[in-house]
Amino acid sequence: MLKKVFGSAVFGVEATTITVEVNVDSGIGYHLVGLPDNAIKESSFRIAAALQNNGYKIPGKKIIINMSPADLRKEGSAYDLTLAIGILVATDQIKAEELEKYLIMGELALDGNLQPIRGALPIAVKAKEEGFKGFILPKQNAKEAAIVDGLEVYGVENISEVIGFFDRNEPMEQTIINTREEFYKNLDFPEHDFSDVKGQESIKRCMEIAAAGGHNIILIGPPGAGKTMLAKRLPSILPPMTLHEALETTKIHSVVGRVKAHTGLMAQRPFRSPHHTISNVALVGGGSYPQPGEISLSHNGVLFLDELPEFKREVLEVMRQPLEDREVTISRAKFTVTYPSSFMLVASMNPSPSGYFNDPGSPVTSSPAEMQRYLSKISGPLLDRIDIHIEVTPVPFEKLADERKGESSVDIRKRVTAARELQTLRFEDSETVHYNAQMNTKQIRKHCKLDDASMQLLKTAMERLNLSARAYDRILKVSRTIADLEAANDINGSHISEAIQYRSMDREGWLG
Known about the structure:
Structural class: alpha/beta
Number of helices: 22
């Protein structure tokens, strides 16, 4: 007897429906075909134990299971439940009249309990697209899958519940989530607040500009100046995620199994802070079966690289293309996977190996040559892709001892959100550009027009600082954001001059 049951495979952030065909014939043998990996091949032992512990068995007949399309490699243990139900139906141990209306996934423990799977959200999206009535999966992933409207989602704890549902029409509890209500309910404010920061008003201004336009920023300063403290508070002033952004971000985290069971939809912008020993594959993604890296897990959020020169040079260089294209494409011999990676890069670094500027008053000093050697670990092309460079100086004792609270993240966020709303209107006709940092050359020429005085000011700066064409574009983008924060239609000289100040590492003589 031949029976079909449906599962799904995830490639990148998209799912592909897998048809599991189970054929039972006279003879003896268990044959699993269709490019399964070792985890799927081992499933026969898990399935046999799980069925036996729940009063069923794999009969001594010739069982051939084909996972179609057969030329597509299948990976992982999430097909256990799919295969087990297919075997039970094909061997007439249970009846399942509506089996083909459901997509079934789950890893089996030996007692029949279900373990969580990866990629539940992309799979649910695909199931709805292909007209499935429902999706049966482990309970831990149910909230994540239930984000998709118009699909019945059943979270189960044991295979016996699935058998009862099909064979005896025993009801299972459907997981229902009001996606919008869940999203807005979870827009909790982050724990870190800018009101905790003493002094550093100019740096706060830089962070506000960076947040308003989605600009990459690098903070340069000695130890204890507050670089990490400021970076950790950046998400608190970013505009709340839209529902579309939340779905995009949740999809990526779902693929790597990072979505918490009790939340379902991610409402907070991600903040990722990898250690400087990270490999290039872990940063951009990859492996024999490509998985998202840190830059994709930071999508719609912040990637913080602390102590930037301590990262291996080849690790930093692989970020150049994703920073420009806002997506990363990983190619293998048989397939290509593209992951989105539209993130804000926030980097911090000391100006020298000793940690201090070339200052006789510093506890430890480094020579200009040592500073130059240290800074040369970061390539010019990478620095070109960072819109804002700013020096962070230590806070004097008087400001540290001041008990007055600074401006809160709530107040700064209001201005940032207002500026982002202007940008949303400006780019409403574009599908790929939503804020100033994403502008391409054509859009820069259209939206960043300068008067004669501003153009002369920029020309002088370009000549004196020997800036590249990319740095020229960066200055225009930042000045457009500064104008948006003031709700100004046109860019003027003050906006340009402030934007030029935020190119510290381009200045001649910066090393003293």
